[in-house]
Predict the 3D structure of the following.
Amino acid sequence: MMRKAGLQAMMTGAATAGLLSACVQPSAQDTDAKQPFTPRYLGVETQLLDGDLVNFHVTMTGAREREDVAAYGKCAAAQYALIRGYGFARHVRTNVDENGKRWTGDAAYVISAALPKGLKTIDAEVTVQNCLENGIPTV
């Protein structure tokens, strides 16, 4: 009799837990995972500001979040560094703006031949390869 009551309580608890979990709202990650990522990369404008400081303006649609726009700017900076004969870049800042479905990024990087000091440095060759593998265009 005691075993039957214990089993019944466990089943009732499991049913209640199942019903409660059905009421939980999906997290943002669950929602994002279901949305297809179909970016359109609309172009990069490059501007040499001072010495090795370069500004990149990128435009795209279909971004999921700010990081998608920042990645586009990073890819542009890495390719630009290689074009100029440099192997590295250091991220200075990236500003991202969303206007409807259109996203823009304004990123600044210092390009250099040697690994620069700082925490946000990139190896241009490795970064360009990663961009190609992820379908992100470069300059």
